[in-house]
Design goal:
Elements: H1 18-30, H2 34-47, H3 52-64, H4 68-82, H5 88-100, H6 103-116, H7 123-136, H8 146-164, H9 168-181, H10 187-198, H11 202-215, H12 220-232, H13 236-246, H14 254-266, H15 270-278, H16 289-301, H17 305-318, H18 320-323
Helix pairs in contact: 1-2, 1-3, 2-3, 3-4, 4-5, 5-6, 5-7, 6-7, 8-9, 9-10, 10-11, 10-12, 11-12, 12-13, 12-14, 14-15, 14-16, 15-16, 16-17
Length: 337
Amino acid sequence: MPKPYKTKKNIIPFIPEGEFYFSKGVEAFQKRKFELSIKWFKKALSEKPNHPLYQCQMSIVYTEIGSYHKANQLLTKVLTAYGDEYIDCYYLIANNYAHLGLLQDAIKYAELYLEKDPDGEFAEEAIGLLTVLDFEDDEEDDEWVLEEEDDVLIYQETVFYHLEREEWQEAIALLEEMIIMFPEFQQARHEYHYALFFAGEKEKAIELEENYLQEHPDTLASFMNLAIFYYQTKEITLFHNLVHMLENIYPVHEQQKLRLASMFTQVGMYQEAFSRFRCLHKSKLKGHPSYYRWYSTCCYFIGNETMAEQIWEEGCKEHSILKKQMKPWQNSNLIGD
């Protein structure tokens, strides 16, 4: 019998390059599978670490999930390497700064975008952003340099980490440094007062916040802090005067919306809190343990225990720190009487 004809097959391994990973990242992003999208974009960047389009697209995903500092780090790298070839980065950075509460920085980058490309793709959005920021900005100085902005972001993100985990003393130490180093960044003062109050220095926190409000009578952060402080210390008349006004305020930025919704939960206005939480974009706030903590709490106290349990369990999957804590509605230290 003759031997059968044998062929030697050449097996060519398929090794995906950056374009393949990038396309998969875009596909996941379009399906709103943001964590999966980030994984694909990281693979794409591992193939082509300095590819500007990959970095820009990944920054957009970070913006969607509320990691604004990470988004801006990528966009700044693109601008440093490619300059005005990627003008849209200026608007994207402005948008992220606005969400972080760095209003002067947001204004500066939005204006830079319009100066460089007045008819650009994001021109209308940039004009709208400037209109909103001009209305809200009454506190910050516009003389910051880029090095200071980077330092503020690092401090702010570290403080955020400790505040979200209710590590008050660690947050206080950092905030004291911030107030000295960056006196123009007023949000640090409000976070400092909040941390002081829950670290046990209630009288000092109230005095500092009241003094600040006298000097800056239209500061939303002061109103929210004092509403919580008065509620906790049973200053009923002062409390009711503040919350009546706060019920009629609807902030523009997602971070402020979350703070206001959380405040309503902390002061026992659970139905009002629930309606505010329902209007939030969860994809932009998944990085905040407080979102899950206070949303689940208001659900529980309006009688929707099933929804409360679901939100709390989802939060525990997103943030390991929550797994170590009791459910907030079982913790009398978190909810006032």
